[in-house]
Protein backbone atom coordinates (compact mmCIF):
# COMPACT_ATOMS: atom_id res chain seq x y z
CA UNK A 1 0.00 0.00 0.00
CA UNK A 2 1.14 3.53 -0.69
CA UNK A 3 1.10 5.08 2.77
CA UNK A 4 2.73 8.24 1.39
CA UNK A 5 -0.55 9.44 -0.12
CA UNK A 6 -1.67 12.63 1.59
CA UNK A 7 -5.20 13.13 0.29
CA UNK A 8 -6.44 9.82 -1.07
CA UNK A 9 -6.74 6.19 -0.08
CA UNK A 10 -6.03 3.66 -2.80
CA UNK A 11 -9.08 1.68 -3.90
CA UNK A 12 -10.32 -0.58 -6.70
CA UNK A 13 -13.73 -0.97 -8.33
CA UNK A 14 -15.12 -3.67 -10.59
CA UNK A 15 -17.62 -2.95 -13.36
CA UNK A 16 -19.18 -6.39 -13.68
CA UNK A 17 -21.24 -7.08 -16.80
CA UNK A 18 -23.10 -10.39 -16.98
CA UNK A 19 -24.90 -11.89 -19.95
CA UNK A 20 -28.59 -12.69 -20.01
CA UNK A 21 -30.79 -14.18 -22.67
CA UNK A 22 -32.86 -11.86 -24.81
CA UNK A 23 -36.48 -12.88 -25.22
CA UNK A 24 -40.05 -11.68 -25.34
CA UNK A 25 -39.85 -10.56 -21.72
CA UNK A 26 -36.66 -8.54 -22.14
CA UNK A 27 -36.96 -4.88 -21.28
CA UNK A 28 -36.18 -2.41 -24.08
CA UNK A 29 -33.26 -0.09 -23.43
CA UNK A 30 -34.34 3.47 -22.95
CA UNK A 31 -31.17 5.10 -24.20
CA UNK A 32 -30.45 5.34 -27.97
CA UNK A 33 -28.12 3.29 -30.73
CA UNK A 34 -24.82 5.01 -31.27
CA UNK A 35 -24.65 7.57 -34.07
CA UNK A 36 -22.11 10.30 -34.73
CA UNK A 37 -19.55 11.54 -32.20
CA UNK A 38 -21.86 12.07 -29.26
CA UNK A 39 -24.10 9.13 -30.03
CA UNK A 40 -27.65 8.32 -29.12
CA UNK A 41 -29.41 5.00 -28.72
CA UNK A 42 -32.66 4.02 -30.43
CA UNK A 43 -35.34 3.22 -27.86
CA UNK A 44 -36.02 -0.20 -29.30
CA UNK A 45 -32.47 -1.56 -28.96
CA UNK A 46 -31.77 -4.34 -26.50
CA UNK A 47 -28.78 -5.07 -24.31
CA UNK A 48 -27.89 -8.72 -23.85
CA UNK A 49 -26.16 -8.04 -20.53
CA UNK A 50 -26.75 -6.47 -17.12
CA UNK A 51 -24.42 -4.51 -14.85
CA UNK A 52 -24.16 -5.13 -11.10
CA UNK A 53 -25.01 -2.14 -8.92
CA UNK A 54 -24.95 -2.12 -5.11
CA UNK A 55 -26.79 0.33 -2.85
CA UNK A 56 -24.70 1.68 -0.01
CA UNK A 57 -26.16 1.88 3.47
CA UNK A 58 -27.67 5.14 4.70
CA UNK A 59 -25.19 4.87 7.58
CA UNK A 60 -22.19 4.77 5.27
CA UNK A 61 -19.59 7.47 5.87
CA UNK A 62 -19.00 7.86 2.12
CA UNK A 63 -21.82 8.50 -0.36
CA UNK A 64 -24.67 7.02 1.76
CA UNK A 65 -27.58 5.55 -0.24
CA UNK A 66 -25.63 5.76 -3.50
CA UNK A 67 -25.71 2.94 -6.05
CA UNK A 68 -22.14 1.96 -6.87
CA UNK A 69 -20.09 -0.68 -8.62
CA UNK A 70 -18.64 -3.21 -6.14
CA UNK A 71 -15.23 -2.28 -4.74
CA UNK A 72 -13.43 -0.73 -1.83
CA UNK A 73 -10.21 0.35 -0.19
CA UNK A 74 -6.98 -1.58 -0.69
CA UNK A 75 -5.99 -3.70 2.30
CA UNK A 76 -2.35 -4.49 3.21
CA UNK A 77 -3.11 -8.17 2.61
CA UNK A 78 -3.71 -7.41 -1.09
CA UNK A 79 0.04 -6.69 -1.29
CA UNK A 80 1.09 -9.61 0.92
CA UNK A 81 4.06 -11.70 -0.14
CA UNK A 82 1.87 -14.75 0.54
CA UNK A 83 0.35 -14.19 -2.90
CA UNK A 84 3.67 -15.25 -4.42
CA UNK A 85 2.94 -18.81 -3.35
CA UNK A 86 -0.70 -18.65 -4.49
CA UNK A 87 0.36 -17.40 -7.94
CA UNK A 88 3.54 -19.48 -8.06
CA UNK A 89 2.95 -20.80 -11.62
CA UNK A 90 2.86 -17.19 -12.84
CA UNK A 91 5.55 -15.48 -10.76
CA UNK A 92 8.10 -16.06 -13.51
CA UNK A 93 6.12 -13.78 -15.81
CA UNK A 94 5.90 -10.00 -15.36
CA UNK A 95 2.87 -9.00 -13.26
CA UNK A 96 1.83 -12.64 -12.78
CA UNK A 97 1.06 -13.11 -16.47
CA UNK A 98 -0.97 -9.93 -17.00
CA UNK A 99 -0.50 -8.34 -20.40
CA UNK A 100 1.81 -5.36 -20.63
CA UNK A 101 0.56 -1.80 -21.15
CA UNK A 102 1.81 0.33 -24.06
CA UNK A 103 1.37 3.61 -22.19
CA UNK A 104 4.76 5.19 -21.33
CA UNK A 105 5.64 4.84 -17.66
CA UNK A 106 5.97 8.61 -17.20
CA UNK A 107 2.34 9.17 -18.23
CA UNK A 108 0.88 6.25 -16.26
CA UNK A 109 -1.40 7.17 -13.34
CA UNK A 110 0.64 6.99 -10.10
CA UNK A 111 -1.81 4.37 -8.84
CA UNK A 112 -0.42 1.97 -11.45
CA UNK A 113 3.09 3.40 -11.90
CA UNK A 114 4.21 3.40 -8.25
CA UNK A 115 7.11 1.03 -7.60
CA UNK A 116 5.65 -1.28 -4.97
CA UNK A 117 8.98 -2.98 -4.27
CA UNK A 118 10.22 0.33 -2.86
CA UNK A 119 7.17 0.32 -0.59
CA UNK A 120 8.02 -3.16 0.69
CA UNK A 121 5.75 -5.36 -1.43
CA UNK A 122 6.82 -7.91 -4.07
CA UNK A 123 3.30 -7.85 -5.54
CA UNK A 124 2.94 -5.47 -8.51
CA UNK A 125 0.34 -2.73 -8.14
CA UNK A 126 -1.72 -3.87 -11.13
CA UNK A 127 -2.00 -7.33 -9.51
CA UNK A 128 -2.81 -6.12 -5.98
CA UNK A 129 -5.45 -3.68 -7.27
CA UNK A 130 -7.17 -6.50 -9.13
CA UNK A 131 -7.01 -8.70 -6.04
CA UNK A 132 -8.60 -5.86 -4.08
CA UNK A 133 -11.42 -5.46 -6.63
CA UNK A 134 -12.13 -9.21 -6.60
CA UNK A 135 -11.97 -9.48 -2.81
CA UNK A 136 -14.26 -6.50 -2.28
CA UNK A 137 -16.71 -7.82 -4.86
CA UNK A 138 -16.82 -11.12 -2.96
CA UNK A 139 -17.27 -9.36 0.38
CA UNK A 140 -20.01 -7.01 -0.79
CA UNK A 141 -21.97 -9.14 -3.24
CA UNK A 142 -20.96 -12.77 -2.72
CA UNK A 143 -19.74 -12.99 -6.31
CA UNK A 144 -16.46 -14.93 -6.39
CA UNK A 145 -14.49 -14.65 -9.63
CA UNK A 146 -11.80 -17.30 -9.46
CA UNK A 147 -10.32 -20.13 -11.50
CA UNK A 148 -9.01 -23.51 -10.44
CA UNK A 149 -5.32 -23.44 -9.62
CA UNK A 150 -4.99 -26.79 -11.33
CA UNK A 151 -5.80 -25.22 -14.70
CA UNK A 152 -2.79 -22.90 -14.56
CA UNK A 153 -3.57 -20.98 -17.72
CA UNK A 154 -4.24 -17.42 -18.76
CA UNK A 155 -7.73 -16.19 -19.47
CA UNK A 156 -8.81 -13.81 -22.21
CA UNK A 157 -12.48 -14.32 -23.10
CA UNK A 158 -15.78 -14.23 -21.30
CA UNK A 159 -15.21 -15.89 -17.96
CA UNK A 160 -17.13 -18.36 -15.83
CA UNK A 161 -15.62 -19.10 -12.42
CA UNK A 162 -14.91 -22.57 -11.13
CA UNK A 163 -17.55 -24.20 -8.98
CA UNK A 164 -17.47 -23.67 -5.22
CA UNK A 165 -20.44 -24.96 -3.23
CA UNK A 166 -22.70 -22.32 -1.68
CA UNK A 167 -21.99 -23.55 1.85
CA UNK A 168 -18.27 -23.05 1.36
CA UNK A 169 -18.86 -19.63 -0.15
CA UNK A 170 -20.96 -18.49 2.79
CA UNK A 171 -18.37 -19.67 5.31
CA UNK A 172 -15.45 -18.05 3.53
CA UNK A 173 -17.31 -14.85 2.82
CA UNK A 174 -17.96 -14.40 6.53
CA UNK A 175 -14.28 -15.03 7.26
CA UNK A 176 -13.09 -12.59 4.58
CA UNK A 177 -15.46 -9.94 5.89
CA UNK A 178 -13.99 -10.45 9.35
CA UNK A 179 -10.41 -10.22 8.08
CA UNK A 180 -9.39 -9.52 4.45
CA UNK A 181 -6.28 -11.66 4.86
CA UNK A 182 -8.58 -14.69 4.93
CA UNK A 183 -8.98 -14.19 1.18
CA UNK A 184 -5.43 -15.54 0.83
CA UNK A 185 -6.20 -18.45 3.15
CA UNK A 186 -9.37 -19.26 1.18
CA UNK A 187 -7.49 -19.34 -2.13
CA UNK A 188 -4.82 -21.58 -0.66
CA UNK A 189 -7.23 -24.10 0.93
CA UNK A 190 -9.65 -24.24 -2.02
CA UNK A 191 -6.78 -24.30 -4.55
CA UNK A 192 -8.17 -21.40 -6.54
CA UNK A 193 -6.73 -18.23 -8.03
CA UNK A 194 -8.37 -14.80 -8.09
CA UNK A 195 -9.08 -14.34 -11.80
CA UNK A 196 -6.98 -11.23 -12.24
CA UNK A 197 -6.66 -11.96 -15.98
CA UNK A 198 -10.40 -11.41 -16.54
CA UNK A 199 -10.18 -7.83 -15.23
CA UNK A 200 -9.34 -5.23 -17.86
CA UNK A 201 -7.95 -1.82 -16.95
CA UNK A 202 -10.66 0.74 -17.68
CA UNK A 203 -10.15 4.08 -15.89
CA UNK A 204 -8.78 5.89 -12.83
CA UNK A 205 -10.96 8.34 -10.90
CA UNK A 206 -10.00 10.45 -7.90
CA UNK A 207 -12.50 11.89 -5.44
CA UNK A 208 -12.68 15.68 -5.88
CA UNK A 209 -12.00 18.00 -2.99
CA UNK A 210 -14.79 18.78 -0.50
CA UNK A 211 -17.47 16.97 -2.52
CA UNK A 212 -18.34 13.83 -0.59
CA UNK A 213 -17.02 14.60 2.88
CA UNK A 214 -13.49 14.20 4.11
CA UNK A 215 -12.86 10.76 2.58
CA UNK A 216 -11.11 10.78 -0.80
CA UNK A 217 -10.12 7.81 -2.93
CA UNK A 218 -7.73 7.14 -5.80
CA UNK A 219 -9.67 4.35 -7.50
CA UNK A 220 -8.78 1.94 -10.28
CA UNK A 221 -11.82 0.92 -12.37
CA UNK A 222 -11.68 -2.50 -14.00
CA UNK A 223 -14.08 -4.07 -16.51
CA UNK A 224 -15.04 -7.75 -16.31
CA UNK A 225 -17.54 -9.63 -18.50
CA UNK A 226 -19.03 -12.99 -17.50
CA UNK A 227 -21.33 -15.20 -19.54
CA UNK A 228 -24.09 -15.68 -17.00
CA UNK A 229 -25.45 -13.68 -14.07
CA UNK A 230 -23.87 -15.07 -10.88
CA UNK A 231 -25.64 -15.60 -7.58
CA UNK A 232 -25.53 -12.37 -5.58
CA UNK A 233 -26.11 -11.49 -1.91
CA UNK A 234 -25.59 -8.14 -0.23
CA UNK A 235 -23.47 -8.08 2.91
CA UNK A 236 -26.26 -6.43 4.98
CA UNK A 237 -23.74 -4.00 6.45
CA UNK A 238 -22.28 -1.59 3.93
CA UNK A 239 -24.57 -2.84 1.17
CA UNK A 240 -28.35 -2.97 1.65
CA UNK A 241 -29.50 -3.85 -1.85
CA UNK A 242 -28.20 -5.05 -5.20
CA UNK A 243 -29.65 -5.05 -8.68
CA UNK A 244 -28.70 -6.22 -12.15
CA UNK A 245 -29.84 -3.79 -14.85
CA UNK A 246 -28.77 -2.64 -18.31
CA UNK A 247 -26.69 0.54 -18.46
CA UNK A 248 -29.57 2.50 -19.98
CA UNK A 249 -32.05 1.29 -17.35
CA UNK A 250 -29.77 2.45 -14.58
CA UNK A 251 -29.35 5.86 -16.19
CA UNK A 252 -33.09 6.18 -16.73
CA UNK A 253 -33.80 5.25 -13.10
CA UNK A 254 -31.29 7.91 -12.08
CA UNK A 255 -33.02 10.57 -14.17
CA UNK A 256 -36.36 9.55 -12.68
CA UNK A 257 -34.87 9.90 -9.18
CA UNK A 258 -35.45 6.23 -8.35
CA UNK A 259 -31.79 5.84 -7.41
CA UNK A 260 -28.70 8.03 -7.14
CA UNK A 261 -25.34 7.44 -8.78
CA UNK A 262 -22.18 9.54 -8.52
CA UNK A 263 -20.62 11.22 -11.59
CA UNK A 264 -18.02 8.47 -12.23
CA UNK A 265 -20.78 5.85 -12.41
CA UNK A 266 -22.85 8.16 -14.61
CA UNK A 267 -19.91 8.68 -16.98
CA UNK A 268 -18.89 5.01 -17.17
CA UNK A 269 -22.45 3.73 -17.68
CA UNK A 270 -22.87 6.30 -20.45
CA UNK A 271 -19.74 4.85 -22.05
CA UNK A 272 -21.16 1.34 -21.82
CA UNK A 273 -24.31 2.46 -23.65
CA UNK A 274 -22.24 2.26 -26.82
CA UNK A 275 -22.34 -1.54 -26.56
CA UNK A 276 -25.59 -3.48 -26.58
CA UNK A 277 -23.63 -6.73 -27.02
CA UNK A 278 -21.67 -8.29 -24.17
CA UNK A 279 -19.24 -9.84 -26.65
CA UNK A 280 -18.57 -6.44 -28.20
CA UNK A 281 -18.01 -4.91 -24.77
CA UNK A 282 -15.67 -7.75 -23.82
CA UNK A 283 -13.69 -7.53 -27.06
CA UNK A 284 -13.32 -3.77 -26.79
CA UNK A 285 -12.30 -3.78 -23.13
CA UNK A 286 -9.83 -6.62 -23.70
CA UNK A 287 -8.18 -4.98 -26.70
CA UNK A 288 -8.18 -1.44 -25.31
CA UNK A 289 -6.82 -2.34 -21.85
CA UNK A 290 -3.21 -2.52 -23.03
CA UNK A 291 -3.37 1.14 -24.14
CA UNK A 292 -3.49 2.38 -20.54
CA UNK A 293 -5.64 5.13 -19.03
CA UNK A 294 -5.64 8.70 -17.78
CA UNK A 295 -5.78 9.90 -14.19
CA UNK A 296 -8.97 11.90 -13.71
CA UNK A 297 -9.38 14.29 -10.82
CA UNK A 298 -12.64 16.24 -11.36
CA UNK A 299 -12.51 19.92 -10.49
CA UNK A 300 -15.91 21.07 -9.19
CA UNK A 301 -16.90 24.69 -9.77
CA UNK A 302 -20.15 26.52 -8.94
CA UNK A 303 -21.77 28.32 -11.88
CA UNK A 304 -25.10 30.13 -11.49
CA UNK A 305 -27.57 27.54 -10.20
CA UNK A 306 -25.53 24.45 -11.03
CA UNK A 307 -22.08 22.94 -10.65
CA UNK A 308 -19.61 22.04 -13.35
CA UNK A 309 -17.30 19.07 -12.99
CA UNK A 310 -14.29 19.70 -15.20
CA UNK A 311 -12.31 16.69 -16.43
CA UNK A 312 -8.81 16.54 -17.93
CA UNK A 313 -8.79 17.73 -21.53
CA UNK A 314 -11.34 20.48 -20.95
CA UNK A 315 -9.98 23.84 -22.09
CA UNK A 316 -10.58 25.26 -18.60
CA UNK A 317 -9.08 22.34 -16.69
CA UNK A 318 -6.22 23.85 -14.67
CA UNK A 319 -2.64 22.66 -14.71
CA UNK A 320 -2.85 23.01 -10.93
CA UNK A 321 -6.31 21.71 -10.05
CA UNK A 322 -6.18 23.32 -6.61
CA UNK A 323 -5.86 26.85 -7.98
CA UNK A 324 -9.02 27.31 -10.09
CA UNK A 325 -11.98 29.04 -8.43
CA UNK A 326 -14.02 30.51 -11.29
CA UNK A 327 -14.32 30.73 -15.08
CA UNK A 328 -15.53 33.35 -17.44
CA UNK A 329 -18.70 32.64 -19.41
CA UNK A 330 -18.27 32.03 -23.13
CA UNK A 331 -20.19 30.36 -25.95
CA UNK A 332 -17.23 28.53 -27.49
CA UNK A 333 -17.99 24.81 -27.46
CA UNK A 334 -14.49 23.67 -28.46
CA UNK A 335 -12.42 21.69 -26.00
CA UNK A 336 -15.16 20.63 -23.61
CA UNK A 337 -14.88 17.68 -21.24
CA UNK A 338 -17.25 18.19 -18.33
CA UNK A 339 -20.33 17.10 -16.44
CA UNK A 340 -22.88 19.80 -15.66
CA UNK A 341 -24.79 19.02 -12.46
CA UNK A 342 -28.05 20.98 -12.30
CA UNK A 343 -29.17 19.04 -9.23
CA UNK A 344 -28.28 15.66 -7.67
CA UNK A 345 -30.39 13.81 -10.29
CA UNK A 346 -29.71 15.92 -13.37
CA UNK A 347 -26.32 15.48 -15.00
CA UNK A 348 -25.41 16.52 -18.53
CA UNK A 349 -22.28 15.49 -20.38
CA UNK A 350 -20.58 18.08 -22.58
CA UNK A 351 -17.72 16.55 -24.54
CA UNK A 352 -16.05 17.77 -27.73
CA UNK A 353 -12.58 16.27 -27.21
CA UNK A 354 -11.13 13.02 -28.51
CA UNK A 355 -10.55 10.48 -25.74
CA UNK A 356 -7.01 9.33 -25.08
CA UNK A 357 -5.70 5.77 -25.16
CA UNK A 358 -8.29 4.58 -27.72
CA UNK A 359 -11.06 4.90 -25.16
CA UNK A 360 -14.77 5.57 -25.66
CA UNK A 361 -16.73 8.76 -25.58
CA UNK A 362 -19.91 8.41 -23.52
CA UNK A 363 -23.29 8.52 -25.17
CA UNK A 364 -24.67 11.97 -24.40
CA UNK A 365 -28.21 13.32 -24.48
CA UNK A 366 -29.47 15.18 -27.57
CA UNK A 367 -28.41 18.82 -27.70
CA UNK A 368 -31.97 20.08 -27.45
CA UNK A 369 -32.34 18.53 -23.99
CA UNK A 370 -29.27 20.31 -22.61
CA UNK A 371 -29.46 23.53 -20.68
CA UNK A 372 -28.11 26.34 -22.84
CA UNK A 373 -26.90 28.18 -19.74
CA UNK A 374 -24.46 25.41 -18.96
CA UNK A 375 -21.90 26.46 -21.62
CA UNK A 376 -19.12 28.17 -19.71
TrEMBL record:
- Supply the EC number(s): 3.6.1.77
Question: Does the record bear 4Fe-4S in its keywords?
Answer: no
Q: Which family does it belong to?
A: Belongs to the Nudix hydrolase family.
GO terms for MF: coenzyme A diphosphatase activity; metal ion binding
**Cofactor(s) in the UniProt record:** Mn(2+); Mg(2+)
The name this protein carries in UniProt is: Acyl-coenzyme A diphosphatase NUDT19
Q: Which InterPro entries match?
A: NUDIX_hydrolase-like_dom_sf, NUDIX_hydrolase_dom, NUDT19
User: What CDD domains does this protein's entry cite?
Assistant: NUDIX_AcylCoAdiphos_Nudt19
UniProt keywords (A-Z) are: Hydrolase, Magnesium, Manganese, Metal-binding
Domain Nudix hydrolase, residue spans: 19-267
Q: Which function does this protein serve?
A: Fatty acyl-coenzyme A (CoA) diphosphatase that hydrolyzes fatty acyl-CoA to yield acyl-4'-phosphopantetheine and adenosine 3',5'-bisphosphate. Mediates the hydrolysis of a wide range of CoA esters, including choloyl-CoA and branched-chain fatty-acyl-CoA esters and at low substrate concentrations medium and long-chain fatty-acyl-CoA esters are the primary substrates. Highest activity seen with medium-chain acyl-CoA esters and higher rates of activity seen with the unsaturated acyl-CoA esters compared with the saturated esters. Exhibits decapping activity towards dpCoA-capped RNAs in vitro.
Q: Identify the SUPFAM superfamilies for this entry.
A: Nudix (SSF55811)
- What reaction is this protein's catalytic activity? dodecanoyl-CoA + H2O = S-dodecanoyl-4'-phosphopantetheine + adenosine 3',5'-bisphosphate + 2 H(+); butanoyl-CoA + H2O = S-butanoyl-4'-phosphopantetheine + adenosine 3',5'-bisphosphate + 2 H(+); propanoyl-CoA + H2O = propanoyl-4'-phosphopantetheine + adenosine 3',5'-bisphosphate + 2 H(+); tetradecanoyl-CoA + H2O = tetradecanoyl-4'-phosphopantetheine + adenosine 3',5'-bisphosphate + 2 H(+)
Gene label: nudt19
Which GO terms of the cellular component aspect does the record hold?
Answer: mitochondrion
Q: By its UniProt entry, which PROSITE patterns does this protein fall under?
A: NUDIX (PS51462)
Amino acid sequence: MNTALKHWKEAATLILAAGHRLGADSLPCRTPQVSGNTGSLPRGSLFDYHVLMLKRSSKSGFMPNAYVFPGGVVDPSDFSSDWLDIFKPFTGSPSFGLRGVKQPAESRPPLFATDRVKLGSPVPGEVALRICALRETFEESGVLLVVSKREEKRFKGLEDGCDVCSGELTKWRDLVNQNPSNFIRMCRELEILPNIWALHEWSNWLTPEARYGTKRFDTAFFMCCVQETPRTLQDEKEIVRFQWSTPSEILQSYREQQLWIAPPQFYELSRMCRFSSLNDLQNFSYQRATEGCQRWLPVILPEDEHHVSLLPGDKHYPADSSGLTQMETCQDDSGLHRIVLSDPYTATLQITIKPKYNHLLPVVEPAESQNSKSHL
